[in-house]
């Protein structure tokens, strides 16, 4: 999926711990247009639960949440 | 029919503790909730007041000034609820948290203000402890009482007492 998806913004969340990965996604979602996608890379395993929970609460969509080596890669779509 | 905007959820929190660990919990929850689009109210009372104070001396009467000395400073002076050891515990936890890249309490609190978290001092405990409104950091709202807090709390989906 990541090969075909257009990325509007790359976010480096490596080294950040709770609650910062979620906070940074929230602070940056407004920078992409509605329908746009953020690709975020985190190292905090807690982000695997938190970023989808954030998306569910804010009405946005996580297209992908995958572990790649020691990193967690998210594709977050701005829905509104 | 136009799609209705979902009602904004909210969180109302009393922060009575001035303990380092409990303040951490309070500010992590507050910043998280703000990031999730919630309206957040933090009501600081008693020992919690120091968390929104600048590093200035307070107190008008002899007892008030004494309190300002033994419980003075700002949020960076807060000690953990266990392993305090006259400041050693705070140093140890700050060191450990720094090693793991966790934000400091001061950074978390300032982030909360940036995210639009509403912080209020409790007027009654400010009077008792002789901590004036002018001693608070920028971004703290005008002091309120328990009635205001309860109004916010009864409309909130989440209420916490820390």
Q: Secondary-structure blueprint of this entry?
A:
The complex is a heterodimer of chains A (80) and B (162).
Chain A: E1 9-13, H1 20-28, E2 37-42, H2 47-58, E3 61-68, E4 71-77
Parallel strand pairs in A: 1-2
Antiparallel strand pairs in A: 2-4, 3-4
Helix pairs in contact in A: 1-2
Chain B: E1 10-15, H1 20-35, E2 39-44, H2 62-70, H3 88-99, H4 105-114, E3 118-121, H5 123-129, H6 146-155, E4 158-161
Parallel strand pairs in B: 1-2, 1-4, 2-3
Structure summarized in a few sentences:
Chain A is an alpha+beta fold and 80 residues long.
What does this structure look like?
The mean pLDDT of chain A is 93. Chain A is of the alpha+beta class and 80 residues long. Chain A has one domain: TusA-like domain (Translation Initiation Factor IF3, 2-Layer Sandwich). Chain B has 162 residues and is an alpha/beta fold. Chain B has a single domain, classed as Hypothetical Protein Ychn, Chain: A (3-Layer(aba) Sandwich), CATH 3.40.1260. Chain B contains six helices and four strands. A four-stranded parallel beta sheet of chain B has the order 3-2-1-4, with helices on both faces. The longest helix of chain B is centred in the N-terminal third of the chain and has 16 residues. Classes of the chains: A alpha+beta (80), B alpha/beta (162). At the A-B interface, helix 1 and helix 2 of A face helix 1 of B.
């Amino acid at each position: 999926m990541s090969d075909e998806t257009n990325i509007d913004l790359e976010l480096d969340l490596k080294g950040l711990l709770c609650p910062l990965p979620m906070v940074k996604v929230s602070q940056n979602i407004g920078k992409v247009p509605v329908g746009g996608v953020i690709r975020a890379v985190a190292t905090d395993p807690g982000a695997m639960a938190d970023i989808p929970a954030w998306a569910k609460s804010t009405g946005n969509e996580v297209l992908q949440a995958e572990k790649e080596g020691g990193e967690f890669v998210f594709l977050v779509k701005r829905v509104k | 029919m136009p799609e209705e905007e979902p009602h904004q959820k909210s969180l109302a929190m009393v922060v009575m503790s001035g303990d380092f660990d409990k303040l951490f919990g309070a500010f992590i929850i507050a910043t998280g909730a703000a990031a999730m689009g919630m309206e957040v109210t933090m009501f600081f009372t008693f020992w919690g007041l120091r968390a929104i104070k600048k590093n200035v001396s307070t107190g008008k009467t002899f007892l008030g000034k004494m309190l300002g000395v033994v419980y003075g400073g700002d949020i960076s002076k807060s000690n953990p609820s266990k392993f305090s050891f006259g400041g050693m515990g705070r140093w140890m936890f700050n060191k450990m948290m720094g090693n793991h890249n966790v934000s400091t309490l001061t950074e978390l609190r300032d982030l909360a203000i940036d995210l639009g978290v509403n912080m209020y001092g409790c007027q009654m405990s400010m009077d008792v402890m002789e901590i004036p409104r002018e001693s608070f950091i920028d971004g703290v709202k005008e002091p309120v009482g328990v009635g205001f807090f309860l109004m916010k709390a009864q409309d909130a989906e989440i209420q916490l007492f820390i």
